[in-house]
Model the fold of this input.
Amino acid sequence: MRTAPLALVSLALAACGGSANPPANPLDPNAPTWHADVAPIVSRSCAGCHVEGAIGGFPLITFDDARTIANPIRDSVQSRRMPPWGADNDCNTYENNRALTQDEVDTIVAWVDGGAQEGDPADSPGPVAPLTPPTLDRVDLSLSLAEPYTPQASPDDYRCFLMEWPYEERVWVTGYEVVPDNAAIVHHVIPFLIDPDDAEEYRALDAADAGPGYPCYGGPGGDIETLINTRWLGSWAPGGGARTMPEGYGVRVKPGSLIAVQLHYYSLTTPGPDQTQVNLRISETELGWADVQPWTEVAWVLGLGMEIPANTDDVTHVFEYTEEDSPFTLHDLALHMHTMGQSGEMRVIRQNGDEECLVSVPRWDFNWQTAYALAEPVTVNPGDTVRLTCTWDNPTDDDAAWGEGTGDEMCLGITLLTSDD
Ligand code: HEC
Done:
């Protein structure tokens, strides 16, 4: 069906003697086809987000869905923008890796370049389920926005919502999952753990802003210290799924704490209301120490030494921390910069000089701040150094430095770590 019109187009072009170039996508009889080769890849790696009502914004299910945007699909996989996966898989191996293999990229590219042919449904290897993120095996506490919130700003609205902590004894959080309500607009979620001593301050922030929650670009408290000093329970972006702590460990939460859930809403059209929920798995029995630990140079936070001069590219700053006392083990890593960020990485430099890459994000994308889960946790021993590197381009006429605003920058590594001491 598709063959005839394309062939006619090329005949027509040849007839008017116009183009010496072949048509953009000539039909290649040996090229991969939708049913035989491409649909299985797209069903597994794209359809989870590209389905009606999900974050991807447009469906990518049927041949017609894909055919009409074949060129953008090719570009998105070739450039590795899609599926969103920022980590360089040569650096380390990740449990939650969702990148396409090079073979899969090549197949999609060859399909588009060969005329984006449908092929024969009989050649389909059968239905392939979308990569679905893991879920919690047990939910002990569900925290949810007290009332639905409709984003006020477009395309980006950053807002924090306070949630009461109901336990009257110390407990340990052993897993969390985010259940986005309006999945089309929820772009990232970070549950922050507010210490009982700070609870009043946060309640005041909430009270000072009309409607549910309060604006919170960057950290949960609207000032610089809170981002560094506030513990995270984790972080979630679309496709992320549940995260469970390593067996025998949990994040300790004191009674009287609050959870400040930061939501980044992203919408190009008028967004509808959202009432996202965070589910937690709790242990009331004492567990080993797990913590979501931010890494950065304290001086930077105080405004020293992280200058990013105006109109300058490739500005790099490095923070190193050498452990002196006790070993700890790294499980998950995420990076955080703002929109001038270009690339970042974390490494361990062993006492003997050997280096191990933990995470490297070669093309920083502010909109996709995922935690990368190491397939093999890495233990850092006394004498080892953790090195964090961030690189920015500053195209503006203003110098940039650490800060919360859109024109300011940050350089953070965020790790889930456990320790037995
Ligand atoms: C984890 C969710 C997710 C997955 C998986 C995903 N996408 Fe997307 N996609 C998005 C979102 C969200 C956007 C909107 C732009 C953005 O936020 O980057 C998008 C935009 C796009 C666009 C248009 C903009 C662009 O960057 O080119 C194309 C084409 C696309 N996706 C193709 C794909 C293909 C092909 C796959 C599978 C190989 C895929 N996507 C997998 C979430 C996803």
